[in-house]
Amino acid sequence: MLIFVKLGGSLLTDKTVESSFREDVAQRISRELKSALDTHSDLQILLGHGSGSFGHFAAKRYNTIAGVHSAEEWQGFANVATAASALNYLIASALHANNIPVWRIQPSASAISENGVLKHLETQPITTALQQGLMPLVYGDVSLDTARGGTIISTETIFFYLAQHLPVKQVLLLGEVDGVYDQNGVVIPHITPANFQEIASALGGSAGIDVTGGMETKVSDMLSLTQKVPGLEIRIMSGTQPGLLEKTLLGEASPGTVISS
Fold first, then answer.
1. Rounded-to-integer distance, Cα 164 and Cα 77, Å
2. If you write DSSP's letter for every residue of 188-203 in order, what string do you get?
3. Are strands 2-7 and 44-49 parallel, antiparallel or unpaired?
4. What's the rounded mean pLDDT across residues 201-221?
5. Could you give the angle at the alpha carbon of 205 between the alpha carbons of 204 and 207, nearest 5°?
6. Which is nearest to 261 in space by CA: 235, 224, 221?
């Protein structure tokens, strides 16, 4: 069974402090992933992560998401890519230290967007990695854009594209929150097209700097994805509780908020 797992930038970094990395969190999550893979031999994981305080600071500085045209903006484009890949290296190192055969796959090497919408991403390396028992690791990155010159693609954007090309059954989005909260601060257990408008007003932005949108954008995009991929279940959950990711991967826990069609 193929599961996409996204580690939020707020989980892995302090998004209010540039280039801060929570090594202890990366190591703990790596141990949980390794344990789940060892327990469930049929489990396949595509891992992705946000840019957190690495890429988002640089992206905001140059407003890369809005477009890349001038020499200064192209320099910023390259700086954002370097910052994002720096965090990716640290996370890959934590996975490697826990004996996970991780393969870093750089989205910007093949990504082509059109006015902010990802239109192409090479999937063959990911497919081969999964077939050979490797864990492909993708991340929020820059992308060439036919309308804007260049832009930013979030991990959710990448997952949105890949879910329509790979046989994924479940997507887990891990952050610092327990799920999607209603106006009273209570976790909403299930979001569907039927109740989205009712709860939309309770959804806020993102703590710290995030150029790719906050919770409202995430929920809206993921709800749209479930309508494109029949049977797909997306879960927004906490990554701060030790052991919870492993139990969820093994079907022993059902935390957070489920988004489905």
1. 27
2. PSEE-TTTHHHHHTT-
3. parallel
4. 65
5. 120
6. 224
Is the pTM higher than 0.90?
A: yes
Weakest mean pLDDT among 71-80, 216-225, 231-240: 216-225
**How far is residue 7's CA from residue 245's CA, in Å, rounded to a whole number?**
11
The C-alpha angle 44, 54, 141, rounded to 5 degrees, equals 55
Continuous segment of H or E residues that includes residue 58:
helix 52-62
Packing angle between helix 215-228 and helix 155-163, nearest 10 degrees?
10
Mean pLDDT of the chain: 93
What is the Cα–Cα distance from 152 to 40, expressed in whole angstroms?
35
Q: Is 237 helix (H, G, I), strand (E, B) or coil?
A: strand
Alpha-carbon distance of 261 to 245, in angstroms, equals 23
Q: Say whether pLDDT at 213 is over 60.
A: no
